[in-house]
Amino acid sequence: MDVPLADKPWGGVFDQTTDRRVEKFTESVSFDRRLYAHDIRASIAHAHMLSKVGVITDDERHQIITGLELIGREIAAGDFAFREDLEDVHMNIERSLVDRIGDVGRKLHTGRSRNDQVSNDLRLWVRDQIDAISALLIEVQRSFVGRADGDAGVILPGYTHLQRAQPVLAVHYWLAYCEKLDRDLDRLADCRGRVNQLALGTAALAGTSIPIDRHMVAEELEFDGILANSLDSSSDRDFVLEFAFCLSLIAIHLSGWAEEWILWSTTEFSFLRIPQAYCTGSSIMPQKINPDVLELIRGKTARVVGNLTSLLVLVKGLPLAYNRDLQEDKERLFDSVDTVAACLELASAVVVGAELNREAIAAQLDRGYLDATTLMEHLIMQGVPQRTAHEIIGRLVASAMKRGVPLVELPLDEFQSAHSSLDRTVYDVLGARRAIEAFTSYGSTNPEQVEHQLNIWRERLSDTTEPPLAI
Ligand code: ARG
Asked: Quick one: which atom of ligand 1 is closest to the CA of 87?
């Protein structure tokens, strides 16, 4: 079954109609309609420019812009009938403009092509999403920092290889996530600079002989710069891949945190209670309260990373310049943005609502010889070489393990016979709390260090109050 060509903006050269299956196969309006507001904004800037350079009259510009604004309002209200046979959002809007204002509407596409148009729309859209995701990241940081007063003084076991390693202040843990998310913010800001470059006006691939003014369009659309090579800019999707990578790393950071808190909320750990509002139950086991939100934050990371992989493979081996393959970028990109935004929003809520189980944490804190390294460092400071001190303390730990006691419960003579420099002062560094106090290095979990970092974070987070943009 075929479709008549009369309606195709590219139909002139064709004498065969389009197979219906091809129409379904090639359309993108079912998902790229999401770009409508950015498409209209860029078209308005383009129309301003066309009139300034004298390609259209002031009156034509006025008609075009009024028409575009009307279309924008209709789409926003849900009153616009998108047509699959018009392929994409760009041609739907343009056709609707022509239907409203006649031949003047047919002038809008002067000096541009859908190749630069779609890239430019996508850049505008990604720019907004970077701002929205950044605001959500800052919210999660605020949520972690907001826990500081309530969790002040709580010491948790720190792990390496998921084995107990050294004691760490709970607040130090929270600030660790703030740092990770901060690098994500930094990456987004850096990526934004490369996203925020004007592609419009490079036309199909080679530029245009119409005397357009790209600088004027860049200024109106608040771009930081103008892409300099038409072949490159009409086909470049680096900015999509980069953003998809930034989103993947955010998802991976959240996934690690989610895994940690899932573990901490188990009966075995009992460090943490996750609010029931963010859990669900089992239809067969009446006692179950499962941390599904955290599990899904961890699970949804798979699709975000999968989307990045799809995008990388999509552009692999594409010759210059535009190829229709590129239409496949949008669903992957949209999905990553939606997924990460939802994860960040719920992460904030869980971070705010979770409660540390102080008693259970304290009751288990003396297990695992969290203070052994600090004791070794104490011996090093008496002049014993590190390798020797390591061995000596290792033997003391083995002896304590045999007796089933923490190091602090070993008698003084045992320390003294292990090494003559080990005197009563060992008790100054034994036990998780003393070990914490013994740390001195910048960035360590020493309470003063943590307080210092916390103040820096509080200060930083107090001045950005931008609400998240709607996605
Ligand atoms: N819908 C297309 C896309 O998303 C727009 C560009 C199509 N260009 C073309 N010459 N067919 O990539």
From this structure: 1
